[in-house]
Amino acid sequence: MPTEVSRKVLAVVDDLMFAVKIDAAARQSGVSVEYARGREEALEKGRQGPSLVLIDLNHARLDVLELIAEFKRDEALKKVSLLGFISHVDTERRQAALKAGCDSVVPRSAFSTNLPQILKRHATAL
């Protein structure tokens, strides 16, 4: 009998407020979330097979556009779904993230509101 298997989500954030929101939504959704603080850690954890990578496109200490491009260039990583979140007024950075290979970009407000559903949709598989 097939059972539902929980999959990991990787979060690349440096904003404590969003880390707290992600943790709360993960607990509510029964999802496992890991965090990466830097480029190498994000790439290493990305190779461990998360179903989704959440990326704060306003990350202060990381070139997230380059990280996105690295995910999409790497054969082992390019199929991992990347979801970026950003201020709704930063349309230029939104376009740059999409061009770099981010699969979808949502405003921070929509990200916060829809986070439990996002995690459930991406983090389970039969």
**Low-confidence spans:** 1-6
Rg estimate, integer Å: 14 Å
What is the overall shape? globular
Total domain count: 1
SS class: alpha/beta
Topology, number of strands: 7
Verbal overview:
The protein is α/β, with parallel strands linked by helices. Helix content is 46%, strand content 22%. Strands 3-2-4-5-6 form a 5-stranded parallel sheet, with helices on both faces. It has a two-stranded antiparallel ribbon with strand order 1-7. Helix 1 (16-29) packs parallel to helix 5. The longest helix is centred in the C-terminal third of the chain and has 16 residues, at 108-123. The radius of gyration is 14 Å and the shape is globular. The N and C termini lie close together (11 Å). Mean pLDDT is 89; it is low at 1-6.
Helix-strand blueprint:
Blueprint: E1 5-6, E2 8-12, H1 16-29, E3 32-35, H2 39-46, E4 52-56, H3 64-73, E5 81-86, H4 91-100, E6 104-107, H5 108-123, E7 124-125
Parallel strand pairs: 2-3, 2-4, 4-5, 5-6
Antiparallel strand pairs: 1-7
Helix pairs in contact: 1-5, 2-3
In short:
This protein has 126 residues and is α/β, with parallel strands linked by helices.
Could you list some keywords that capture this structure?
single chain; 126 residues; alpha/beta; Rossmann fold; two-stranded antiparallel sheet; 5 helices
